[in-house]
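User: Here's a chain of 238 residues. Predict its fold as tokens.
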Amino acid sequence: YSEIGFKVEEYKRPTFEVIFDEIIKAYNPGDSIYITGTANSFMGAKIAQTVVSYEIYRSSYYKTWWRTSNSGRIQIAHDTTTTDVDGIFTIPFVASVDKSVKNTENLIYEYNITATVTDVNGETREASISFKMGKQNLSATLSIPQNAEQGGSISVKVEARNLNDNPVKSKGTLHIFKLQAPDRILQNRLWAAPEIQQILKEEFVQLFPYEPYKDEDKKENWSTLLYLKPTEPLTQTF
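Assistant: Prediction complete.
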């Protein structure tokens, strides 16, 4: 025996919508921030002089190249505002931070704002927007083709963006390193290398020419050689 329940509501076509303006500016912890949005009727009229209820939540996480750790979400604001004659509303708040946290080098704060509008007919619509900020408000990414021919040219694409994924005009220096691969073809190890080798490397190579002696089959253990270092800073324009 099993059962399941569900609800059926009368469908009502929405008559207006709530839209937040895009957040382009980069902020710092502790800044005073003003989030703007608009309540518009689908008939073209403005939802003027209407109460807007809003909630703001803050969460934080550490993001490094090897892992990401999150903290809980807490409410930092719950208040109301009013749309003007053009249906525009403004939500002001201070980007508060957790002062008990000492290590803020890789700490990223994320703020989520939800606005709810109810018109004179009792119809309710809401919208949400979020943005991030941190001590390091810039991230750079490199991308190259997966395949390349020996002796051919390679195009390296450099992108700089802030924590909200907006492009940022920036300058930097590009270093290209060449990996020093082993002087023989190696296959993957079928078992872990012993902590103490009982045979000399030269003898091992003669007996097992395609087997790695230790961990030289892994690229992360290869030595590197500075292949190219531009003398002038690299400028990336978006």
